[in-house]
Amino acid sequence: MSERGSNAWPARFAKPEHTVIVGTGIAGATAALTLRTEGYQGRITLVGAEAEVPYRRPPLSKEVLRGTVKGERIRLKPDTYWSEHAIELRTGTTVAAVDTGAASVTLADGEVLGYRNLVLATGSSPRELPEAVGVPGVHYLRSLRSATTLAAALAGRGPVTVIGGGLVGLEIAASARALGCAVSVLEAADRPMSRVLPAWLADPLSALHWDRGVEIHTGVTVARIEHHPRRGGCTVSASNGRAWSAATVVAAVGTVPDTGLAQAAGLLVADGIVVDEYGRTSASGVFAAGDAANLPDMLHGGRRRGEHWNEAMEQGAAVATTIAGVLTPYPRLPWSWSDQHGVTIQVCGRPDLATEHEVHGDPEARDASVVFRRLGRVVGVVAMSRPAEFRALRQLALAAEGGR
Q1: CA pair distance 338, 330, nearest whole angstrom
Q2: Is 41 domain-assigned?
Q3: Which residues fall in a coiled-coil region (predicted)?
Q4: 213 to each of 180, 323, 342, how far by Cα in Å?
Q5: End-to-end alpha-carbon separation of the chain, Å?
Q6: Which of 18, 109, 226, 286 is the 20 to 30 Å CA partner of 214?
Q7: Model confidence at 16, in pLDDT bands (50, 70, 90)?
Q8: pLDDT for the residue numbered 12
Q9: Lowest-confidence range among 20-29, 199-208, 377-386, 390-399?
Q10: Of 238, 253, 268, at which residue does a domain stop?
Q11: Rounded Cα–Cα distance for residues 80 and 60 (Å)
Q12: Distance CA 82, CA 85 (A)
């Protein structure tokens, strides 16, 4: 689908300048939508390589895999919304190059778009598992197309091996188990979700998976993956000699930022496109938001890169507000959520920095909220099955950090 709103440009919109947004994920789409809600009257072109109109990605590992929602039900907006709001939506369109000196973007078909402001919301790609390179039958989950392909594989109800015990890997495992598949999760660390939760909170969630029939194996180093064309499926072997046979193998070992365009354009890149607290890159008029952006950690020092839907959405909105004329820093507290076997896990801030914590409820029953503090200051919040309480505690954390 491709919409070129210039053929039906509403008279109420003037076109004194042009903002080009590369990437139709949540960061790019939110930037476009926010520009309009903030009263921006310039031309907006939203360009994305995926053929689909902007859609919500969180359901990919859950409802889409389980077949409880179809692709059209996860669209961010109705198809006509974009042109009605004078946003030129170019789906299925690849950007070939960015020229920051000429302030222009060249599309794969040779068309050149000049810009006053450019937003690079190019997102990230699944980190490729070295042992899976060239092996048929290994799935990665990132797009609606890949989710649809994986859902078809899971529909066979064969055994599944998920490599990676992070939030996405465990969501895939829970969805596969809900479909009746036998599921094994292989995690290299000593526990799943080690980057997100302390052991005493991760353990009850591991127990939840075991209770629902998902086997979680930690400390596993994958040595090789073999495809069996005659009998179908694959064998995943660990360095200690143990092996798992599966009809479907899913690699969920993190993501890498898509920075090729930025790097070719001469922008500063280091584990993402380097930006300041307002999303500004090293080139004038060029911004970055979402998974591809590497931003300063204004609370704790250093730099960080967000990899979650909520943070990408907030970054897109902040960049758009800055472009519209109100200098707006990125939100300072990252936050994310996950749904596993019907239990909602929400995380805000940096629990790993805490020196003390306060527990409400029972973590063993997966019904609790935890406030993490460092020297008396709230640095993080975790909630299980308590979304309303999480919203209130997140505001407490924001207030403690002087955030929004």
Answers
A1: 22
A2: yes
A3: none
A4: 10, 50, 14
A5: 36
A6: 226
A7: low
A8: 37
A9: 390-399
A10: 253
A11: 23
A12: 5
Structure tokens at 262: 């930025």
Q: Is residue 336 in some structural domain? A: no
| pLDDT at 308 exceeding the cut of 50 | yes
Same domain, 84 and 116: yes
CA distances in angstroms from 203 to 180, 212, 285, 335, 372, listed in the order given: 24, 14, 47, 21, 18
Same domain, 144 and 248: yes
Q: How many CA atoms lie within 13 A of 325 on its CB side?
A: 7
Q: 196 and 144, same structural domain?
A: yes
Structure tokens at 94: 């690849």
Which tokens in the block code for residue 379? 């640095």
Tokens of residue 63, six digits:
């409802």
Sign for the CA dihedral angle at 147, 152, 154, 159 comes to negative
> Residue 252 and residue 401: Cα distance in Å, rounded?
32
Overall number of domains in the chain: 3
User: In angstroms, rounded to a whole number, what is the distance separating the alpha carbons of residues 315 and 328?
Assistant: 10
Residues 88/43, Cβ–Cβ less than 8 Å: yes
Q: pLDDT digit string (tens) for 182-228?
A: 999 999 999 999 989 999 999 999 999 999 999 999 999 999 999 99
Q: Taking the mean position of all CA atoms in its chain, how far away is CA 118?
A: 21
